[in-house]
Amino acid sequence: MILVLVTSAHSPNRLIRSVVQEIQASGETCLISTVPSLFLLYDNSGRAQILHHQQGMIEPNVIFHWVGGRQAYSTLDALELGGYRLINPLNAWRIGRNKAMQLALFEREGIAHPWTLFAQDVSWARITDHLEWDGQEYVFKPHNAGRGRDVQKTRQERMAANMYSRTPRYREGVLIQEYLDHAPKLRHHFRVNVIGGEPVTGTEIRATGGNWLTNQAQGGDILSPEYGVEDIPGDAIRLALRATRAIGADYSGVDVIEGSDGAFYVLETNEFPGFGERTGPYLGKHIVEVARQESARSPS
Ligand SMILES: Nc1ncnc2c1ncn2[C@@H]1O[C@H](COP(=O)(O)OP(=O)(O)O)[C@@H](O)[C@H]1O
Ligand SMILES: [Mg+2]
Hints:
The chain has helices at 14-25, 73-81, 90-95, 99-109, 124-128, 157-166, 169-172, 234-247, 280-297; strands at 2-6, 30-33, 38-41, 49-52, 56-58, 62-66, 86-87, 116-119, 138-142, 152-154, 174-178, 188-195, 198-206, 221-222, 251-258, 264-270. The chain is of the alpha+beta class.
C-alpha cells in the first residue's frame, strides 16, 4: 500500500491527481491522507504503527509526501525514524530546500556551481571584506527561499550595502555568488526534472522584458510544450543527474545555467518543483517501483 500525504485530501492538485492515477493504474492500492488524519501509535510492538482516523491501522510500503508547513515535520521525522520509506527521504527533502547545504555537497562531489560566499547573521561590514569590488558582479539570494524571491544583483559596493540592509531575510542566511552571464545569448536556464535517477522532463526558461531573472515566477517564458528533455544539452543533463544523486533525492527539479565560458553550472535543486501533468506519471511509476522493492525486501 502506498500512502500519499498532502495538505488537502479532498482537493488534490493536478500533480497529485496524476501521481495517484498512475499508482492506481499499476494495481497498487493508494490512500491519500493529510498529516492531521494520522496518529502514530507506539505500543511496544517493535514498530511505530500508523493509525488513520477513518481507515484504522495502515501499513504503507512507501510514503510519498507533498506537504509544506512546519507542523508536519515531526510526524514525517517520526515516520522515517520508525522505518518507513519516505519519498523524498527527509534528508534530501531538507537539503532540497536549502541552497547552502546543496552547495556543500556539490563542492564535495566536484559538481560545477557558481563561486559562492555564504554568511549567516553577519554584519555587512564583515561580509564586504571578503568580496572583490573591482568589476565583479554579484548575485545575492536567501539560502532558503525560491521562485526568484529576494534575488538581486549588483557590481557596486554601495548598492550591495543598501540591498543587504533593506532585505532582512539575508541576515538569516545569504548566498553571494558570482554572476554567470552568457551574453549575447538570450538569458535562460534549463530546468531538468530528475526522477529515479533519470532525466524525465525538462525545459528551457527564458527571461522576458529585459529581466535578468529567468524564473517563471518572475515572468520567465517556458519554451513550447514540444520542447523536451532531449533538447537540453547533454552536459546540463549530466550535471542535473549528479546534483540529484549528491543530495540523495528520488526526485528533483534542477536549475542549470550556462556561464560565459560556455560551460554549465548548477544553481540549485528544488524540493517542490513545479512538476506538471507530463512529469506526474513518471513520479507515480517511480513511487510504485520503490513500493514493490520495499515489499520484496520486507514482506508483511
Ligand atoms: N549566480 C547566478 N548567475 C546568474 N544568474 C543567476 C545566478 N543565481 C541566480 N540567477 C538567476 O536567478 C534565478 C533564481 O535563482 P535560483 O538560484 O534558481 O533561486 P530560486 O529559483 O530558488 O529563487 C535563476 O533562475 C537565474 O535566472
Ligand atoms: Mg531556481
